[in-house]
Amino acid sequence: MAYTVIARRWRPKKFEDVIGQPHIVTTIKNSIRSGRIGHAYLFTGPRGVGKTSLARIFAKAVNCVHGPTPDPCDRCEICLSINNGNFVDVNEIDAASTRKIDDIRELRELVKYMPFKARYKVYILDEAHMLTGEAKDAFLKTLEEPPGHNIFILATTEPQKIPPTIMSRCQRFDFRRIPQSEIIGKLRRICEEEEISYEESAFYYIAEEADGSLRDAESLLDKVIAFSDGRITEKDVIRVLGLVEKRVLYELCSSIAKEDVISGLKLIQECVERGYEVTRIYRGLVNTLRNILFVKLFGGIPDFLSLEKEEIEQIEAITKDMEYYEIQNMLNYLLSKEDLFRGTFPRITLEVLYINLCNLTKLRRITKVGALALEEKITEEKDKRGEITREFLLNYIKGKVPLLAKALESQEIEIDKGRITILYDDTLKIFLSDPSFPLQIKNLIREAKGEEVEVELKEKKELKKDLLEEYIQEAERIFNTREDT
Ligand SMILES: Nc1ncnc2c1ncn2[C@@H]1O[C@H](COP(=O)(O)OP(=O)(O)O)[C@@H](O)[C@H]1O
Ligand SMILES: [Mg+2]
Ligand SMILES: [Zn+2]
Where a domain ends, among 315, 330, 365? Predict the structure, then answer.
């Protein structure tokens, strides 16, 4: 017997078999149960998510010998022939190949007749957006006619191309991508029922590659089964799908985090030599960064991601001193360059992008160091801007004019806002012979604090002899050292 592909063998036959579209299934079942059957439906959504399958189940539900029922029997003559695709009153029309106006004219004739056997004639118009202008008009006329016994189900992956005139006559259902976890569950069920042994991790790769399309996932499973030797392994899947192992992708990301551009480039080189397509590496990197970003952002695995436990550890190691927005920046950057891979030099493109990613981390580190330095500088500035104290004054002056500092040490200094009063004794007299002395002090303070102060001098009568001596000694010491050098 000829082999039928999994996607066909496993086409859902009852509403309950349809996975990932609970909102649609519930609404349709309820409308059938309550006898509110519409006459034109629009099923939109990506490919391989159950549009055609649900349209057929719908046809059975309204036409089953025991119906209309939300629970078609799947055993009566009508149900069975709808399953086989040869029931006279259910017409599947592929708009992609039925675009000529003549075919639509034929359809317009057809809809006039009563169903042969069923309650309703059901027209499933696949790829409805492919109808050409004239065919669209003719079809619209059909929709405008009194509905009676006809039900139209339009299916399309591109609803934006359906004219509003048609759209407005249909009840619209938006099919969504099937969540990864549900795809994995379905693959597991298929293998169990078909008694194929498997390595669970193999399904992760298939599901990721299928990107929400169950049909694609099932076709990929077919491919892997054909290749594998009785047991489906992660390794086989990677080989068959030409995927880059997660280990390699995490290593690439880890090298970025460590700014280890050389190891990363070597790894890319190895991958290319082993025959990986460059765009695969690129896509793998984008996917991995996305996973990393979400784990960082959510602080764990969000339920829409299927990741294995070890991946979390790897991600944590990579991101331990990264902020989520840094990863977001990298992802942004990578995504913005997608077009380049269609060019002549995909490999060099990847290498350059990779180097730039490493530079992004480097930049981050430099910025961090820069920020620290800036902080230090700010604290320093604050110090500078602090109050003028005697201690500060003398320390500062010591760095500039040591002798003056020494002379000032013995003076009484009163510091008030905007005014410094020096009660001087003989020790300072040597400086006072210079009439610009108060101005010098003024300038020093301006330089140190950026503040204007008045400097006032008041003579103190009492002379401290020992201090004068000390001062003279210090002066000699300073002049002697100068001479020595
Ligand atoms: N929601 C779903 N639930 C169960 N199986 C599905 C679903 N979507 C797709 N499939 C599988 O993929 C095959 C093709 O699905 P189909 O209904 O033709 O998708 P579409 O019309 O959206 O492209 C089905 O035969 C079935 O094996
Ligand atoms: Mg389809
Ligand atoms: Zn039936």
Answer: 365
